[in-house]
Amino acid sequence: MSSPSRVFAILELFTPERPLWSADEINQELAYSRPTGYRYVKELVDAGFLQKVSAGRYALGGRIVTLDYIQRQTDPVYVAAAPIMQHLSDESGFDAVLSRMFGGKIVDTHRVNDSSSLRLAYGRGRVRPLFQGAAAKILVSQLPRQQLTRLYEANKDEARAAGLGNHLSEFRTRLSHIRRQGFYFSLGELEPSVGGAAVPIISPDKGLTGALALVGTIPGLKAAGEDQLRLWLEAAAVLIQARFDKPTP
Question: Which residue ranges form the domains of the chain, and what is each CATH number?
Fold first, then answer.
């Protein structure tokens, strides 16, 4: 890794399960020498990405909060999708969720709650399983062949557990079917008693930009029916894509 990559690899260590790290623990985990690791930690503290919270222990810093605010205000996909997702949630009565893939990881970047306030284990910023749930399968199915191969080779066990095949050829075949359908409906894959339906958001000029999903209880989704869910989602996706592709004045 380059030096910038080695510095930012430190941030990947911080999770809800382990929010505090000492410099020595970071060095041991990432196999950095003591002088190098300490220098990287100091650089992150100086830049506001880390903060010292007790003797020798660090947590994520306030710079990340400010960047999240800026991202919400300026990200073109979020800006295009947010108002459409609010209307979609109001019309359907389900939660509308926007998911995207960054660096081989899938995260939810925006969610609009309907009046039922459905509780979900995953939300904005939390990394989701690669192959579980409607949004994940839609996103992965749209990847180019070479990238799909690399993803499978690095996550074979997870792909098998998700029912996507025991071999690369099966993996490609099943995802090709999802890609052709342009729609995926799942029940209880990611969370018990919860399901989702998703479609891709694709910009002709910019390629895949995300997956748009409706998420709700399994009885509620079954009552709405796959056809209606697909109609709602595809209509919303068209509006988002049109807003996203509209030239800036």
Answer: 3-65 (1.10.10.10), 76-245 (3.30.450.40)
